[in-house]
Design goal:
This protein is mainly alpha-helical. It folds into two domains: 59 residues, Homeodomain-like (Arc Repressor Mutant, subunit A); 126 residues, Tetracycline Repressor, domain 2. It has nine helices and no strands.
Length: 200
Amino acid sequence: MTTTRRTQQDRRDQAEAALLTAAAELIVEQGVRALTLARIGERAGYSRGIVTHHFGGKQALIEQLARATQTGFVPGLNDLPAGLDRLLRLIDGYLGELGRTSVFNQAFLLLWAEAATQPELARIFRERDEAFRTDLREDIEAGIADGTVDPAIGPEEVAVAIVGQLRGIALQRLLAPGCVDVEQLRRSITGHWRRALSPA
C-alpha cells in the first residue's frame, strides 16, 4: 500500500485554510472584538504561534479572510465579456449566493459592518468595495460602448447604488433570514436594473 506524501506547500495550505475557517467561525459566533490569535489557533487545532507564522498577526489574517471570501463569490463571471449581461449575471448570482450563505460570507459581512467603526478594518473594506465598484463600473462602461446601456447613465453612481443595495440585502439576510426571499428578489432586482440601465 502506497501513500502520497504531502509536500510542505500542501501542509502550509491546509494550515492556512484551517486557520481562516477557524477565524470565520469565531467571528460569526463571538464577533470580531473577541477574535484573538490564541482562540484562532485553538479552534483550528494549532498553537497561537502558527497563526503568527502564517499571517504575521490578526490584521493580516483578517485581510486574507476578506480577500479569500469574496474571490469568485459569483462563479462563471470570468467567462463572460464585460457589459450589461455580465452585470445582470453578477447581481443575480450575488443574490443567489445569499441563499447559500457560508460561514465565510457571514464573517465577511460582519467584518464589513464593523469596518464603519473600526479604523483598522476600514482600509481593508474600502479596498474590497472599491474593487467591487470598479468591476461594476467596467461592465456599465462596456454596456454604454456596445449600446446596451443608456449613455446618460453615470457608471460610478450606478456602481455605488448596486453595491449599497446588494450589501444591504446581504446584511438584512444575515440579521433576519426569514424576511428576505432571495428567489423573489433575484427576479425583481435583476429586472429593475435591466429596465433602469437599458436605453429608452
